[in-house]
Design a protein that fits this description.
CATH architecture of one domain in chain C: Orthogonal Bundle
Distance between the termini of chain C: 62 Å
Largest interface: B-C, 46 and 43 residues
Number of helices of chain A: 8
CATH class of one domain in chain C: Mainly Alpha
Largest sheet of chain A: none
Number of strands of chain A: 0
Order of helices and strands of chain A: HHHHHHHH
Distance between the termini of chain A: 16 Å
Helix content of chain A: over 70%
Shape of chain A: globular
CATH superfamily of one domain in chain C: Electron transport complex subunit B, putative Fe-S cluster
Number of strands of chain C: 4
Number of helices of chain C: 5
Structural class of chain C: mainly alpha
Largest sheet of chain C: 2 strands, antiparallel
Oligomer: heterotrimer
CATH topology of one domain in chain C: 3-methyladenine DNA Glycosylase II, Chain A, domain 3
Chain lengths: 192, 582, 194
């Protein structure tokens, strides 16, 4: 039983990594990864939103919407996610204005992060129960954070490297992201 | 890989504590140890830079034309971290102005020049009894005396020694380390000092131990100096200090940079001083052998710091060591070394790893000069062009401070100063091991020095900006406050005038009320005008009332100039109007 | 159909209450942004940006009323730092507001000074020492080089002296290598500044 949950977690974090394998949530991946502190802050914020979002989405889809109002699923998920993000924004502005300033516009953009909507929808699709939803959400968040921090570290090194002029900036970042994605494909088959 | 193995070995208690990293450049020490330490003939003049130590510049006490004796105080220490400057020989002060100093920038700095009269006459000696140390007052008197001794670290760092001999409740010293390692190639001044004057060094060590209250003394010396080690062991056996505290000569394997204070401490005691703490915070203090000898000469003979042993080596006829008075020109020293050979293309002050190129050969020897190397294309070929970094990490392997030189290089190169500081750039001791090891010939230390001076300049600018912001805010507050005070005064005066007007109104209530009000108002206005006129007439600035006659004369002169300026302005306007009318 | 409306209404109300409560709980007063912009500005208080000092300029930037490239003493590096902070594109300095000068301090020619105190009133950091009918002098360590004292002086006795380089403030140079073309082989890599 516990083994199932562990496999679910590893699957969500590494094998089916939302950024590099499912290719969701690229906006903060590219946008915030220029600086390491911003990436860490974004990772923590997204992890929080994802986990809470997964939990509440389960309750909404299971108890509030049931099987008749399935068409309201996307809308209600978005509404809940927007609320949680707003709450995170307010908390961050109060408690760490530095990070709030560092993240800038990307903090409210977590609302439109397709990964943050995608994970709850995938939960419904895979018919996870509450615990599984939470683990899936948290695992996805851990995978997202891992990749974001790795990518930010690499981009900081790329800043100082002798990149050919045509590749400087976003181009080399995309190439790096692609190579990372290839690397993460290697996890396929990790979880049998 | 080897460092990883080392770490594993050490964690199991196997393997010697070695300098982590480090390199083995060819030593070139035997050239300059063939003869005893010589004495230079007295030069014609000595040029003493004021900036020979870390800390504040000393305050010059002498004037042009003063005759000074050998050992006389020329400039006294100013502030907490500062050192005095003494005349190394007797003569007349001929200039106190900017002259070329041995500094990598090649910029001139304030120097005192003495034209020597050849008599070499000493000032009266005043030895100090350092054994008397019963009260705190005795101790502070001794340290006060050291402030005017001019003694600074003679290993090259030039840190005022009286600061290092202070102890307080927070930082007590258990182990006193004597740095006799002299790890840099070509330099042999400490080696010869130990061979010839080991006894005097031990006498100085006694004084240092007494002042610090250290419980043991360790003398660290590299294994390429067997004669010096023997001399020191002999002196230790004969020294009364060996009966007081454990006194040991520890021979360490030759490796550059084992002479760095923290490296030597780690080699001798196994203690690694944390990067953010000083060695005194962990109970250790480290002195160079020449510094403690200077302590002995000062306390026991009353001789301030006026000379040191300097190695002249490299592309000269007869490399050797000489006792040189501070302020002697490097040219004189080169002359004593038999003169530079024909293909000499420059001079290096210091060693080949950490030294710098001298801007000219006519710079003076200072307290920090331990060696002069005449360089030639065959000895020091010009560096091949730098090639791209291949990320071999050889620099990280040899770094004695366990930094990441390749990261620091990337950050310094792209001027990412914040990240460079985060990667502990300021822990770099600029030993040059990384540059020595780099297969791409990248001048790594030059990048770190650039980044360090940029960061220091930025920090200074930031501090200045903060200060300016505070002053600006205070000024705005002051102006506000003055405005408020003026407004209050106005309000009071207005209230007073109203009260008066009300009174006059009340007394002449029989007259027609309108006329009375008008009359009262007119009276109030007239009174105000009178007051203003009186104030202007009486407006004499308070601070010139008691001025002395010369100042009053100056004020009168300035007043005249002001009247003249005013007059010329009115004249100009008048002529302008006249012209316009025409 | 109606249930759908009720469900959405319920969600909206619930979230509204929660968010309203957190808005009150996490209320932030004051605007730390102005202080952070002010921390980047060089505090020369010269007014070249068009505002009477660095704090007013910082307030204007925070309010979106001023651009980030109006501060010559901050230089391009300052504009870059401001662009980073505000999350906008970097713009090089606007030449309309002046170009950066080398750091200087003011110097009063004491033979010409008439002791009028006009410069003392003009100095934004109170760096001039003096009184009416007494000699005025600049406290060099406090002078920011803003040049505001030059204009009010009726006898033009104030000049700006650039700060000379001395062993005290000398900085190591960025390592630069000569690039030599070796015939057809092409250039060897040299250290170039980004």
């Amino acid at each position: 039983m516990v083994q199932n949950y562990i496999l679910l977690f590893i699957g969500a974090a590494l094998v089916n990594n939302i950024v590099l394998v499912k290719i969701l949530g690229l906006c903060p991946f590219m946008g915030v990864s220029k600086k390491l502190e911003a990436s860490v802050a974004m990772a923590m914020a997204t992890a929080f939103v994802l986990t809470i979002g997964s939990g509440t989405s389960y309750f909404i889809s299971e108890y509030l919407l049931g099987t008749d109002l399935f068409y309201l699923r996307t809308v209600s998920f978005i509404v809940v996610i927007a609320g949680v993000v707003q709450f995170t924004e307010m908390w961050m502005e109060k408690n760490s204005p530095v990070l709030y300033q560092v993240l800038g516009i990307y903090l409210p953009l977590i609302t439109t992060n397709c990964a943050v909507l995608g994970i709850p929808l995938l939960n419904v699709q895979n018919k996870h129960n509450l615990f599984e939803s939470l683990i899936f959400g948290f695992g996805g968040a851990v995978g997202f954070s891992l990749v974001l921090i790795l990518f930010a570290s690499m981009r900081e090194r790329l800043e100082a490297a002798d990149v050919p002029a045509v590749f400087q900036g976003a181009a080399i970042a995309m190439v790096t992201g692609g190579l990372m994605s290839l690397a993460f494909m290697g996890f396929a088959g990790l979880v049998r | 890989m080897s460092s990883l193995l080392n770490i594993v070995k050490q964690s199991f208690g196997l393997g010697a504590v070695a300098v982590s990293g480090g390199v083995h450049p060819p030593e070139h020490k035997h050239e300059s140890t063939t003869q005893a330490v010589g004495q230079l003939p007295l030069p014609h003049q000595l040029t003493l830079p004021l900036r020979q130590h870390v800390g504040n510049l000393p305050k010059v006490l002498v004037k042009l034309g003063d005759y000074v004796l050998k050992g006389q105080l020329l400039a006294e220490a100013e502030g907490n971290i500062s050192a005095a400057i003494h005349a190394p020989s007797s003569g007349t002060i001929t200039s106190i102005e900017d002259a070329l100093i041995p500094h990598p920038s090649g910029l001139p700095d304030r120097c005192i020049t003495i034209a020597l009269d050849g008599k070499d006459e000493w000032i009266a000696h005043a030895p100090i009894d350092w054994r008397k140390l019963e009260t705190e007052q005795d101790k502070s008197k001794l340290l006060e005396g050291l402030r005017s001794s001019g003694i600074v670290g003679l290993g090259g760092a030039a840190f005022p020694t009286q600061v290092k001999l202070r102890t307080n409740a927070k930082s007590s010293v258990d182990t006193l380390v004597l740095n006799a390692a002299e790890c840099e190639p070509y330099i042999t001044c400490d080696d010869m000092l130990m061979r010839e004057r080991a006894d005097q060094i031990l006498k100085g060590l006694e004084i240092a131990q007494h002042l610090l209250g250290a419980k043991q003394c360790l003398i660290g010396i590299e294994d390429n100096k067997p004669e010096a080690a023997e001399a020191m062991r002999h002196a230790c056996a004969n020294s009364p200090l060996s009966k007081l505290v454990p006194l040991k000569v520890v021979v360490v394997p030759t490796q550059y940079p084992s002479g760095d204070a923290r490296q030597l401490i780690r080699l001798l005691t196994g203690i690694e001083v944390p990067a953010d703490k000083r060695s005194t915070d962990v109970g250790l203090q480290c002195f160079n052998v020449a510094t403690v000898l200077a302590l002995h000469r000062y306390f026991d003979f009353g001789e301030p710091s006026i000379s040191r042993i300097v190695t002249i080596t490299g592309n000269v006829q007869k490399p050797a060591n000489y006792e040189v008075l501070f302020g002697t020109s490097v040219a004189d020293l080169v002359q004593a070394g038999g003169g530079a050979l024909a293909d000499t293309d420059g001079y290096i002050m210091g060693g080949p790893m950490m030294g710098f190129n001298l801007p000219s050969v006519s710079v003076p020897i200072t307290k920090a000069s331990n060696c002069v190397i005449a360089s030639a294309p065959n000895l020091f070929p010009s560096a091949p062009p730098a090639m791209p970094c291949i990320r071999c990490a050889r620099c990280a392997d040899v770094c004695p401070v366990s930094l990441q030189p390749q990261e620091l290089y990337w950050f310094a190169k792209s001027s990412n100063l914040e990240k460079a500081r985060d990667y502990n750039l300021f822990d770099c001791i600029e030993c040059g091991c990384c540059t020595y090891a780099c297969p791409s010939n990248i001048p790594l230390v030059q990048y770190y020095r650039f980044a360090k001076s940029e960061i220091i300049a930025q920090d200074r600018a930031k501090e200045a900006a903060n200060l300016a912001r505070e002053r600006n805010e205070f000024r705005l507050m002051r102006i506000d406050r003055e405005k408020q005070e003026r407004a209050e005064k106005h309000a009071q005066k207005a209230a007073g005038a109203k009260a008066e007007a009300a009174k006059t109104e009340a007394t002449s209530a029989t007259e027609a009320p309108e006329d009375v009000a008008m009359a009262a108002k007119k009276a109030a206005i007239a009174a105000a005008i009178e007051r203003a006129k009186a104030q202007k007439a009486a407006a004499v600035p308070q601070n010139v009332v008691d001025a002395i006659p010369s100042v009053q004369a100056e004020i009168a002169e300035i007043d005249a100039r002001r009247e003249a300026a005013k007059q010329s302005v009115t004249d100009a306007i008048a002529t302008n109007d006249a012209q316009e009318e025409k | 159909m109606l249930t759908a409306v009720y469900v959405m209404l319920f969600l909206a109300l619930l979230l509204g209450v929660l968010l309203g409560y957190s808005a009150l709980k996490f209320k932030v007063d004051g605007d730390p942004l102005v202080a952070r912009i002010d921390a980047i500005l060089p505090q020369t208080q010269c007014g070249q940006c068009g505002f009477p000092g660095c704090k007013p300029y910082a307030t204007a930037i925070a309010a979106g009323e001023a651009d980030i490239n109006q501060c010559p003493p901050g230089g391009n590096a300052g504009a870059r730092a401001l662009a980073d902070l505000m999350g906008v594109e970097y713009k090089p300095l606007n030449a309309e507001h002046g170009l950066p000068n080398p750091k200087s301090v003011a110097l009063i020619d004491e033979a010409t000074c008439i002791g009028c105190t006009l410069c003392i009133q003009a100095c934004p950091v109170d760096a001039i020492l003096g009184a009416a009918k007494h000699m005025h002098t600049i406290i060099a360590s406090e002078c920011t080089g803003c040049e505001l004292c030059l204009a009010p002086c009726p006898v033009d006795c104030i000049t700006m002296e650039p700060i000379a380089e001395s062993p005290d403030n000398w900085k190591w140079r960025y390592p630069v290598f000569d690039i030599k073309s070796v015939g057809q082989v092409g250039n060897l890599q040299a250290g170039t500044r980004h």
